[in-house]
Specification:
Helix content is about 35%, strand content about 10%. The protein has about 700 residues and is of the alpha/beta class. The chain folds into three domains: about 220 residues, no CATH class; about 300 residues, 3-Layer(aba) Sandwich (Aspartate Aminotransferase, domain 2); about 120 residues, Aspartate Aminotransferase, domain 1 (Alpha-Beta Complex), CATH 3.90.1150.10. The strands form three sheets. It has a seven-stranded mixed β-sheet with strand order 1-8-7-6-5-3-4, sandwiched between helices. Helix 1 runs parallel beside helix 6 and helix 7 packs parallel to helix 14.
Length: about 700
Amino acid sequence: MPTETEAEAEALAVALDEVLRGMAGKDVRADAGTGAGADAGAEGRAGARAGAGVATDQLTDPSPPSPDLGSGLEPTAGSGLEPGAGTGAGTGTDVGSGTDAGPVSLSGGPSGPEALEPLIATVLEALAGGAKRRDGPIAPGRPEDIAAAVAEAFDSDSDSDSEGEGEGGSDGEGEGKTGGEGTGALGVPTGHPRRGARALARTDARGAAALRRLTELLAHGSADPADPSCAAHLHCPPLAIAVAADLAVSALNPSQDSWDQAPAATALETLLLKELARLVGYDAERAAGVLTSGGTESNLMGLMLARDRVLGTATGEQIEMTGVPGTWARVPGQRSAGMDETTPARPRHSGRPGQSGQSGQAGQPGRLGRSERAGVTGGTGVTGATGVTGVTGRAGRTVRPGRPRILASAAAHFSVQRAAALLGLGEDAVLPVPVDHELRMIPEALASLLDGCAARGELPVAVVATAGTTDTGSIDPLRACAELAAEHGAWLHVDAAYGGGALLSDRLAPLLDGLELADSVSLDWHKLGWQPAAAGIFLVRRAETYASLARRAVYLNPADDEEAGYPSLLGLSLRTTRRADAFKIAVTLRALGREGLGRLVDACRALAVAGARTVREHPRLELHSEPVLTAFLFRYLPSDASRGDEINAALRRRLLREGRAVVGRTELPGEGPGRVRLKLTLLNPHTTPAEVDRLLHAVVAAGRAEEEGGG
């Protein structure tokens, strides 16, 4: 029976093979070429795999292959490296001509899949070898041990060709010392075809050896979220099909900042965002959004739009242009000096969050003309329930409302404070709202703080509700938060980076009641979505509220292109170059559907319930609260209660040092001792309750060992 690691490697190999076939538009294994060239290329590929040390039984030896062992890398007959021996047009020395992959081969084009095939085989074998060496959730040892192993492998010159094979040396004759004829400054073969072929062969050998050695190092030195004993963080084991889809994106390398770099990916992201908007409960035709790097970026975007919308309404200024009132001295009558090649191309926004400004469509903030600029000629003041009256803005005049405030629970993600700092509001602008025992925001406390803002003349810019706190998975009362935010004229942003996965489950989706009322939402599919990072999503309920992010860059989205029907996603993101991360999510959704993903969510929730039961029943463990999603907090109870924090922190490090488990550690809100807690975050749907039970007993054993003397 294959081990779990072997089964995962096999599943990934099958998925990657399908990707290669799709990229080539054919069966790349059966149709690699014709005639003698095809036979020679096949023989060369087989030799390259053997000579590059890709076989499983060689994975424990990190040394590079010897080029004189009949490795298939010498330019002998059938190697595919001699002139004319390639598959199809060109010579065997042409990069990407059908020869086996090397460091200078490209992943795209008709020959890209064939170049990738042996390299992928190398990676898969090295992943299996590294996992076998690790033999657990994490490699045993201390941080300095891991760092030393990485430095040794990274600095290794064992795969260097500083000592050549032929006569000659640095005088430019032959292929001896580095710098001789055969390779150019970047290692690209030059000169005589046969010499170039040999140089390419050596380059290929070095490349395969480096890829194998460093991949095995990475696998050995990684915390493996697919291991049942790796359960510390919101760090999911990605689905093989999602990883395979991600390979296609890496190979083709589309960038989402202009249509002409990513035609299909642009259309696909727009369609996917409509589908995800419907999942959240938004009107897909009125919503807008973008793929992000994760919750931190999404939270920053939500709070940026809140700042621009709410503070802009209160002052009559365009905050994204003039800055936050009070942060700079403005000379009366002075306007911005000049523009570079990018122009803020956005209309004036007016009204409170959710009110209609410029008409937009899903995925776009609206079509903008070249002449549109961001000059402010006036605006309509809005008096909110806070008592802060907006005043018509004039050039040279900045109206200063009371201090802007962001209200978020005491258990909200730290990125809220970071975003406040980046947006010029300051971390102190964030008011922490008290939470209950389960770390859930108390709505009465939120109401009281909002009333306090009104009494002091402060401006509540945003309420940040959390749907799935990092530690307990708790979900704030979203509907109550929405009502209070609306009453006080504040933007509601919901951080559903973790809890958004509950939308996939019929059982858990009702926990997110009221999510559809949020002005903006963040989701992370690299948590409860089983995608390789990054797979963040940011959505707004109404596209017109995206106005302050719109941007015209004449080399990326000129107005005449958009008027001619070429869409642009540039104004939807804080980033310019942006990966097509929507693709892997789209593939996963089409492969499993909401129902299939929902079963994975339910399986992880069941594991958390079972684990919490084990904690409750063990005399040396204490459960903090029942799991809401797939995570729970607990602690080990030492004989000396005064050492609780010390022992719990130390036992976690012991498990890491011994390579036995990766368990989370956190602290409850408040002050003083007794707040340290351990955490299990269960995101592997293939883990069994028995394996969770063994993990918890390992925690107890580590705790007892620490009590007996540490070490």
